[in-house]
Amino acid sequence: STTYRIAVIAGDGIGKEVTPVAQAVLDKVCADEAKFIYEPFDLGAERYLRDGAILPEDELERIKSMDAILLGAIGDPRIKAGILERGLLLKLRFALDQYVNLRPSKLYEGVTSPLAQPGDIDFVVVREGTEGLYCGAGGAVRRNTPAEVATEVSINTAYGVERVVRYAFDLAMKRRKHITLVHKKNVLVNAGDMWQRIVDRVGEEYPEVSHDYLHIDAATIFMVSKPSRFDVILTDNLFGDILTDEAGAVVGGVGYSASGNINASNEYPSMFEPIHGSAPDIAGQSIANPTAAVLSAAMLLRHLGFDAAAGRIDAAVEADIAQLGPTQRSTEQVGRDILARL
Amino acid sequence: STTYRIAVIAGDGIGKEVTPVAQAVLDKVCADEAKFIYEPFDLGAERYLRDGAILPEDELERIKSMDAILLGAIGDPRIKAGILERGLLLKLRFALDQYVNLRPSKLYEGVTSPLAQPGDIDFVVVREGTEGLYCGAGGAVRRNTPAEVATEVSINTAYGVERVVRYAFDLAMKRRKHITLVHKKNVLVNAGDMWQRIVDRVGEEYPEVSHDYLHIDAATIFMVSKPSRFDVILTDNLFGDILTDEAGAVVGGVGYSASGNINASNEYPSMFEPIHGSAPDIAGQSIANPTAAVLSAAMLLRHLGFDAAAGRIDAAVEADIAQLGPTQRSTEQVGRDILARL
Ligand SMILES: CC(C)[C@H](C(=O)O)[C@@H](O)C(=O)O
Ligand SMILES: CC(C)[C@H](C(=O)O)[C@@H](O)C(=O)O
C-alpha cells in the first residue's frame, strides 16, 4: 500500500475537535490500500498569540511537499478579523493555487429541512478560489478621519476564470449535465461579461451540458424556493462564499457541508475542510458535529483516487444521519458511530 | 390640500402593470389631504429600443424637480445586462444621491413561509445606495483574449458610510433598538474595518441601541434559520442587494417586498419601487401581484409625511393578505380588493 503524507492543520475552536475524527475515519477506511502519515502543523490563533507567527515561509514550504491537507477551522474572536483568515487560510488557498473550491450540498435522509424533501437537493458549487475580491487588492487613505476612503478591488483574469469553468463543465458531464452561472453581470459588467463569455465559449465544447445564468440576488431566492433546480453552480469567490453558506442552512445546517480547495493541475497539494468555522461559542465542549470534517476526508480520498473508500465514508455518513442524525451526541460518539459502520 | 408632483417611471414588464395600481391606491387614500399630479416618464426598454435614449439629461433634470418618484421595474431580456440597470436605475439612485435603500421585511398573517411564523419576521434592511461595488469603477484590458483582466472596484467613503449609519441608528431608536452590521470584514479588511469603526463610533451616541456584527455568509444562514434575530440590518450596497432578495424568499416571495431609495437630506426626490424585477416570464398576463408596488406607495407617503395614510395602506394590505393572500387573482383584482378596504 502506498504512503501519503497529510498535513493536518486542525486550527482553532472546534477545528481541533473534529479533525481527529476525520483522521480516524481516514485510517480505518483505507487500512488495506493506503497508509497516511500525518504531519500536524501548529497554526492558528494559539500559535499567533504565542509567538506572532501566522504561516512562516518554511512551514508553507513543508506543506507544499505534502500529498494533501486536512484543515479544521481558522478564526478566533481574540484576534482582529482578517489577520488569520487572510494570513493563513486564504494565504494557503492562494499560495497553493487552489483554484477550485468545491462545495457539494445534499439533503440527507433523516435531516429535516423546512424547505425540501431528501432527494430534492443535490448540487455542487464550483467556487473560484484564487481571484475576485479575495485578492487582497485594495487600500485606504486618511484612515480614521472624516475624509477616509477605503477600496476593495476584484481582480478577474481570463486565465483564472477559464480553468475553473472547464473544471465545472467536466464535473457537469459526470452529473446531471447542467450548469448555472451565478454572478451580478447587470452591475459588475466587466467581470460578469467576461465570466459569461468564457462560459459561452467553453460551453460550445460541451454540447451535452446546458447552462443558464442567475444574478446572485435571484440565486439566493431559488436557493430557498427551489433548490432542486441546481446541479452545478459555477460562481466567483465571494458569491460562492455566500451561496454555500445559504445552501448549508437550507440542507439543515453547515454541520453537513464539506469542501475541497483543489489545485486541479496537481502542482500543489489540495486542502479539505468543513465549511463551518471555528464556532467559539461551542468550542471545548465536545459537542461539535464532526460530520462535515469526515465528509471532507472523503473528498480528500476521492482526490487521491480512492473513490471506493470515499464512497464507503459517504455511505456510512448517510446511514448515520438517516438513523441518528437528530440525536444529540458528543463529537467522539458521532465518530465512533461512523467508524462502526465502516 | 397640498399638491405633490410624482414622477412615474413604470418601466418594463410587470412594472407597467403594477404601477397603475399603486397610483390608484395613492389617489384614494390621500384624497382629502393631498393631490398627486403624476408625470409619466417614458423610460426603459421600449424607449431604448425605439430611439436609443436611456435617461436624457433634460428628463433627469425634470425628475429632480419632482417631489417623489414611483418606479415599477427596469430590465428586459432583449437588452444586454447592465445597460438599463446602470444607465437608468442606478443612474437615478446615484444622481439623486439616494443613499439609504430602505427595505422592510415582514411575514404577514396569511402567508405560509416554510421557515417562520407570522410575527417572527419583522426587520428592515438599511442598504447603502450610492457606493461600494455599484460605483461603476472598474474596467477590462485585452478583452476577448486569453490575457483578459477585468476588475471591479468597491469605493467606500467615511462620508457615505457615516450618513447611512446615522440613519440606521435613528431608525433603530423607533424600533426594537438593535442593529446588525453585515459585511465581510475578515476578507474585505479595508472597507469592513471602516464600516465597523464608524458603527462603533456613532453607536456611542446611541447608548440605548445595541449592535452586533455578522459576516455576510453567516447572515445568509441566520436569514434562513433564525430571521427573528434581526431588527435593523445595516449593510453595503451589494450585500444589501443579496440579503434583501433572500429575505423576500423567506417571507414568502418578493411579491410582498417594497423599497425606498431615500435621499434623507431631501436635496433630491426619493424613489419608491418594489424589489421584484420586470419578470418578463409573466409580463403581459395581468397576473403580477401589485402588493409590493402598493407597499412602496405607502413608503412614499410616509416619506412625504403622511404617516396615517401610509398606515391605512399597510393595514389594508395586511387585511387583504390575511384573507385572500393565497388566492389566484388578477393584478387588477388585487388592486380592487385593496382599494375596497381603504
Ligand atoms: C473564513 C473565510 C475567510 C472563508 C471565506 O470567506 O472563504 C470562509 O467563510 C469559507 O467560506 O471558507
Ligand atoms: C436591477 C439591479 C441593478 C438592482 C440592484 O442590484 O440594486 C436590483 O437587483 C435591486 O435590488 O433593486
Automatic annotation (TrEMBL), chains A, B:
This is 3-isopropylmalate dehydrogenase. Homodimer. GO terms for biological process: L-leucine biosynthetic process. Belongs to the isocitrate and isopropylmalate dehydrogenases family. LeuB type 2 subfamily. NCBIfam families: PRK03437.1. Signal peptide: none annotated. GO terms for molecular function: 3-isopropylmalate dehydrogenase activity; metal ion binding. The lineage of its organism: Bacteria, Bacillati, Actinomycetota, Actinomycetes, Bifidobacteriales. Residues 5-338 form the Isopropylmalate dehydrogenase-like domain. It comes from Bifidobacterium tsurumiense. It is an enzyme of class 1 (oxidoreductase). The record marks Y134, K184 as: Important for catalysis. Keywords: Amino-acid biosynthesis, Branched-chain amino acid biosynthesis, Cytoplasm, Leucine biosynthesis, Magnesium, Manganese, Metal-binding, NAD, Oxidoreductase.
